[in-house]
Amino acid sequence: MSERLSEVSDSGMTERAIRTQGDILEVATAEFAANGYAGARVDEIAARTRTTKRMIYYYFGSKEGLYLAVLERVYAQIRRVERGIHIDEMSPDEALRTLAEATYDHHTTHEEFIQLVSIENIHRAEHLRQSQTILRENVTAITLLEQVIERGVREGIFRDDVDALDVHMVISAYACFHVANRHTFAAIFDRDMLDPALQESHRRLIGDMIVATMTDRRSAGGER
Amino acid sequence: MSERLSEVSDSGMTERAIRTQGDILEVATAEFAANGYAGARVDEIAARTRTTKRMIYYYFGSKEGLYLAVLERVYAQIRRVERGIHIDEMSPDEALRTLAEATYDHHTTHEEFIQLVSIENIHRAEHLRQSQTILRENVTAITLLEQVIERGVREGIFRDDVDALDVHMVISAYACFHVANRHTFAAIFDRDMLDPALQESHRRLIGDMIVATMTDRRSAGGER
Amino acid sequence: MSERLSEVSDSGMTERAIRTQGDILEVATAEFAANGYAGARVDEIAARTRTTKRMIYYYFGSKEGLYLAVLERVYAQIRRVERGIHIDEMSPDEALRTLAEATYDHHTTHEEFIQLVSIENIHRAEHLRQSQTILRENVTAITLLEQVIERGVREGIFRDDVDALDVHMVISAYACFHVANRHTFAAIFDRDMLDPALQESHRRLIGDMIVATMTDRRSAGGER
Amino acid sequence: MSERLSEVSDSGMTERAIRTQGDILEVATAEFAANGYAGARVDEIAARTRTTKRMIYYYFGSKEGLYLAVLERVYAQIRRVERGIHIDEMSPDEALRTLAEATYDHHTTHEEFIQLVSIENIHRAEHLRQSQTILRENVTAITLLEQVIERGVREGIFRDDVDALDVHMVISAYACFHVANRHTFAAIFDRDMLDPALQESHRRLIGDMIVATMTDRRSAGGER
DNA sequence: CATGAATGAGGGTTCATTCAT
DNA sequence: GATGAATGAACCCTCATTCAT
């Protein structure tokens, strides 16, 4: 199952098979994201596809197998974005801001990814844990951050008691929240966090926060 | 439906009826939080209760009615926490840190609440929107924040381009993420964000961040 | 599951429930006997019942559960027959003949039982082994035989190198075969072993065989 | 369909085609014997074969066609055994014992044959009846028995009210039972009828029985 | 208030079989 | 001859919900 997506580029499959699978995956991604794992209907997915329900089982074995493939697909996508970021010639704080904004941009434009992550968490990540591919490839997400922070600390402009994983968490939390909690937030406060009018300032805010925090004199070191 | 909980304190119900309802709600909260709306089973809830499935329908009308009552219950709980916070004699930055930590404390100790919020978002808050009680009472959550920020801005120590809702969002995002994305984060990075060993530093970090951001000279207004 | 049938006489069930279950069991017995475990259709069983398919799952949990209940039912029936046999005042050979004929009579008039046993054997008795009730109660089937044979050996009229289980096997084999292999035998040799015209002589033959064998001078002990 | 196997020896087929068919038949025999007709899976058979599912349909037309071919194969095998028995110079009782033991030997060493016969009986021999080959060739199974019994009766040492088909039935019943009911018998009485330690005495027992019965003075003729 | 019995609609899954290449 | 892709019918099972007592 974990290998399916990579096989797509192999020649073990016909053009048509690739298209069919891709078609199913696209529809399934939307359905699972919109209704949760239990709420999604295999029948409904099949109905929105060029093919039949039977093909879903032919290619993915089960509802869970399909869900897993969907998960791998969206995680593969975010990896591609991460690989496209280049921060070699920036100052540490510039780099930090760039990384923060890249995450913000990805998450706010990939609602389905965030929804699937939420769903996965409701299920205690039990499906995610089955995918060695995802686990293996996605740890590297913080490699860039580690390098930047190390440089900032070495140059004496970053506090040294906040590690890369903490920073990643803060950035992810901020970006995720925009999408994941969009609806309850809007219902209660009547503000759509993804309103284009807010985008620029929100995009800047996460950069501000992370840079202000890492370069803050009072917080860093001292009495702690 | 939305009025049911308030009836509890009325005298239209026997002691026993109140206990039965409370019992059902407690079990239902756990079940919905653990499995999502579609994933939760009415049978399972009934089985874990002292009463029978028939009682669930007697008191709550339907699965959706029960879910709504559960939502109202957990939202009522967070309101009680908010009402208990007193920041009148603190400096704006102290107050900000206090509010941030209170949110952090609540969310990290009420996993079920966060899970239910996640679930509600997957369903585009369509249930939440049905409860006037929740909507009416929970907007007030930012009243305190508004006062603090206004004071800080007036005193010239806070930037003025970040409003109370933004600050609330940032704090909520941080606190939510710890619980909501706990499992995927742990699966990929092998770090449990709720690990007691991390609690102190994580608790401080959100205060640091919000204070550093609001008091940062470079970020506020000016050149941008 | 194993306790179901005995519960029937308890008061934990309404009259109606007992009837419903009995109805289902009767139809299911016929269906499984006629089509095998895999070949039987739950839909078909439900259709031939006063109730619906849902009730089958309500009472028996699964196709397998139903099959198991069917198995217990037919095995309970044969136990009742066995308990009704009285041979206390017969001579050993008379008793032997009586027991043989009782088995012959039961098997040839309970086609479904034999078919279910055949089916069970195709599945390596994996269901039977799950029923402690059947296993526990049906070993006693040879108690009578043991007593009779012991008496015959003691009186010196039976050979002593054939034990009760062997005799049981011989009798069962003969009686089973009439029903279990009825169709292939008829197809090839054009003789219906259950033809009423043959019944008398076939009934006597198994008695003849078992008595002749046990009392045969040449076979017993001696030169072997 | 019924003619397929005979084609094998014709030259209308390549070496390879013959091997492929044999391969399929062997696997199919095991699958049908182990799971029954409905329980056997064409996919599974194909998977255990060197060839693909398509080939099964190419050679055998359908699941039923394959099953029929399997049936013909195992019945052809037992015919070969029968043809190998020579009893011309034996006394009637010796010959009888020899035939009984031959059947016992064949059945206890051809579990799949017995299982397939059981399965066929569950389906009321409806497949068997389609194969003229099997029906035509297997009636001859009792020719030898007929001759022996006739001789015994003529010589006055055999009773004359038990015909060859009855004897065949008794012998078959005994031998079949060892294999066909092996599992339920073992489950209930904890004795494996095919235990090598029992083989010798069980092998002798059927001979004893049939000879004792046919030569028994009391049973034959007389008062009946 | 409370309980076991009952239900209809639909959900996931599987099977034998066929098509296109 | 051989292969992967595709299919429709049906199969087992489950769920929220209601009824009778």
From TrEMBL, chains A, B, C, D:
Entries under PROSITE patterns matching the protein: HTH_TETR_2
GO molecular-function term, one example from the UniProt record: DNA binding
Gene3D superfamilies, per the entry: Tetracycline Repressor, domain 2
Keywords of this entry: DNA-binding
Occurrences of domain HTH tetR-type (ranges): 18-78
Biological process, per Gene Ontology: regulation of DNA-templated transcription
Source superkingdom: Bacteria
DNA-binding region: 41-60
Coiled-coil residues: none
Protein name: TetR family transcriptional regulator
